[in-house]
Write a structure and sequence with these properties.
Blueprint: H1 7-10, H2 13-22, E1 25-31, H3 52-69, E2 75-82, H4 90-103, E3 111-116, H5 123-131, E4 136-142, H6 146-152, H7 158-170, E5 175-182, H8 189-201, E6 206-211, H9 219-225, H10 234-250, E7 254-257, E8 260-262, H11 269-275, E9 280-283, E10 288-291, E11 294-297, H12 302-306, E12 313-316, H13 319-330, E13 337-338, H14 339-348, H15 352-367, E14 371-374, E15 377-380, H16 382-386, H17 388-392
Parallel strand pairs: 1-2, 1-9, 2-3, 3-4, 4-5, 5-6
Antiparallel strand pairs: 6-8, 7-8, 10-11, 11-12, 13-15, 14-15
């Protein structure tokens, strides 16, 4: 058993170490702190900044423990997410970065992303982050309308968002991504397209377009349930996504995944590993990991995680579950899934009837114009992307 790791993980360390040594990992660090909580947020976050020093200390400890337990594995992508990682002090950011360098082999590193809130950064902080080796930044813009931003509970305005993108460029971040949200109460189709054009004009090389998701309890959901606000219709949201699919390629941002657009070569390497089912290690409250057939999630109770009391939710995927994840995640990518390879994998696992059943349903969806088959590859069409949740349910 590996010391200082929860028993369910320590007991499986030989298998976890073997998976970590088989190919380079991605490492995700979750920073759960925010100045304020957005009205749509159901993520693992807190405004209790008093917990921040202890949480960073615990993160450093986890980095060191996992690096030792996995035999200082090679890492090719880093991602610092949240929450609001840009609330870290320069010293805290440096402490985490140095811990990562000491615990993992970063020689294969090709991408190091950090998320930032436009309302919490300045040029000095950005330059420090860039000097530490963070080379890609993802800014939570969400909209370029002060009224919509206020409705979302964002702490920045539209002008500040555009200024943040400019500051990031001045600091040396050649790879800049922005988030744009669709489906906000009061948001018009024309405004979505206008915001996308404005963001593209800043020279960003990546845009993530997210549908406002209110499946879980949050203040905005309560406002809508009470009838004080109304979401745009499903048709209006579909029109917005279709307009972006048409508009963004003309602006140099081509779709490569259901929600993501990039200039050639600027796709998010770290996020793509999730859709390709490549291994990743997530550290921090609520963070998820996948190594080999094992997947686990850290405790989402921040105070308990920080105090070392949080339980780990561990799952071992069986052969059918692991096979199902190939199309479940891979069909999100515009290039789709190599179905010939999936058939071969199914045969090796004695699961050919399962794959044949999926194929029959996908062939039927192709007749409806929702799926395309091309030389052994299957992918969702533009229409299929709009109803992807319903299609992907067959694999769950």
């Amino acid at each position: 058993m590996s010391p200082d790791l929860p028993p369910p993980l320590a007991e499986r360390m030989p298998a976890l170490r073997a998976a970590a040594q088989a190919e380079p990992l991605g490492v995700y660090l979750h920073i759960p702190f925010c100045l304020d909580r957005c009205t749509y947020c159901s993520f693992t976050t807190t405004r209790d900044r008093d917990l921040q020093p202890a949480t960073i200390g615990q993160l450093v400890s986890h980095i060191q423990r996992w690096g030792e337990a996995l035999g200082r594995p090679a890492v090719d992508t880093l991602y610092l997410g949240g929450g609001t990682p840009s609330l870290l002090s320069e010293e805290e950011l440096e402490e985490l970065t140095m811990a990562l360098r000491g615990a993992f082999d970063l020689r294969p590193l090709v991408e190091a992303t950090l998320e930032a809130n436009p309302g919490t950064i300045d040029l000095g902080w950005l330059r420090h982050a860039r000097n530490l080796g963070w080379d890609r930044i993802s800014l939570g813009v969400q909209a370029l309308d002060d009224g919509l931003l206020s409705r979302l509970g964002r702490i920045h305005g539209a002008a500040q968002a555009l200024e943040a993108l400019e500051l990031a460029e001045q600091a040396g971040f050649l790879r800049r991504s922005a988030d744009l949200m669709v489906g906000i109460p009061g948001q018009s189709l024309s405004k979505v397209v206008e915001d996308a054009r404005t963001l593209a004009a800043t020279g960003i090389d990546h845009l993530s377009v997210y549908l406002l998701d209110l499946d879980k309890a949050c203040p905005l959901r309560a406002e809508i349930d009470a009838g004080r606000l109304a979401l745009p219709s499903e048709d209006a949201v579909a029109d917005a996504f279709e307009a972006l699919q048409t508009e963004l390629p003309d602006l140099g941002l081509a779709p490569y995944e259901i929600s993501n657009y990039a200039r050639p070569g600027a796709e998010s390497i770290h996020n793509t590993r999730y859709w390709e089912r490549r291994p990743y290690l997530g550290l921090g409250p609520g963070a998820a990991s996948q190594l080999g057939s094992f997947r686990w999630t850290e405790s989402g109770v921040i105070a308990a995680w920080t105090a070392g009391r949080g339980a780990v939710d561990l799952q071992e995927l069986d052969a059918a579950e692991a096979l199902a994840e190939i199309p479940l995640l891979g069909l999100r990518l515009h290039r789709g899934v190599d179905w010939n390879a999936l058939r071969t994998e199914a045969e090796a696992r004695n699961l050919r009837p399962l794959a044949d059943g999926w194929e029959a349903r996908l062939r039927a969806l192709a007749k409806e114009g929702l799926v395309a088959w091309d030389d052994g590859r299957v992918s969702l069409t533009s229409r299929g992307m709009l109803v992807s949740n319903g299609i992907l349910e067959m694999f769950t």
